[in-house]
Amino acid sequence: MEITHIEHIGIAVENLQEAIKFYENVLGLKCYAIEEVKDQKVKTAFFLVGQTKIELLESTSEDGPINKFIKKKGEGIHHIAFYVKDGLQQALDQMNSKGIQLVDNQPRKGAENMNIAFIHPKSTNGVLIELCEDKS
Ligand code: ZN
After folding, report:
1. What's the 29 CA to ligand 1 centre distance in angstroms?
2. What CATH number labels 2-134?
3. Which DSSP category does 102 fall into?
4. How far is the CA of 76 from the centre of ligand 1 (A)?
5. CB 7 within 8 A of CB 132
6. Which site from 98, 105, 112, 135 is most exposed, i.e. has the minimal number of CB atoms within 10 Å?
7. pLDDT per residue over 63-99, tens digit each?
């Protein structure tokens, strides 16, 4: 697997509109996209910081993963996403064969027209890691 950069950092927030205000008015960043990802029951807002994005995540459902996360841990960093250059499925297969615990054995659809898959925090020292690639 070849990881080229941190694609984005995902941050769980209770209220997307309120959180956007902080990033725009205090940090001076510009929200360039708001997108709902039905698959993951989230609404996302994106900011570009150099090559890396900040992805704010608001739950759209009581039983969504972001709502569960906030209930358990409060708002904050939810995941780190690495960009995989040479094939996400192969990377997942490789990790599977090494006994790494995955959340997704196959890529699924994420925001920003990406294929994504999560590695389970049990295998990553407690960090939810997302791998992503451009949808081909
Ligand atoms: Zn993400």
Report:
1. 18
2. 3.10.180.10
3. B
4. 13
5. yes
6. 98
7. 999 999 999 999 999 999 999 998 999 999 999 999 9
**Centroid of ligand 1 to alpha carbon of 105 (angstroms):** 16
10 CA → ligand 1 middle, Å:
5
Distance, CA 128 to ligand 1 centroid (Å)? 10
Query: Residues 48, 26, 67, CA angle at the centre, nearest 5°?
Result: 70
CA of 68 relative to ligand 1 center, distance in Å: 16
Indicate if the alpha-carbon torsion angle 27, 41, 76, 16 is positive or negative: positive
Instruction: Let me know how long the chain is.
Output: 136
Distance between CA atoms of residues 109 and 12, nearest Å: 19
Task: Decide: pTM greater than 0.90.
Answer: yes
What is the rounded distance in angstroms from the CA atom of residue 73 to the CA atom of residue 41? Answer: 18
Weakly modelled stretches of the chain, pLDDT under 50: none
Per-chain residues with Cβ under 5 A from ion ligand 1? 10, 55, 81, 130
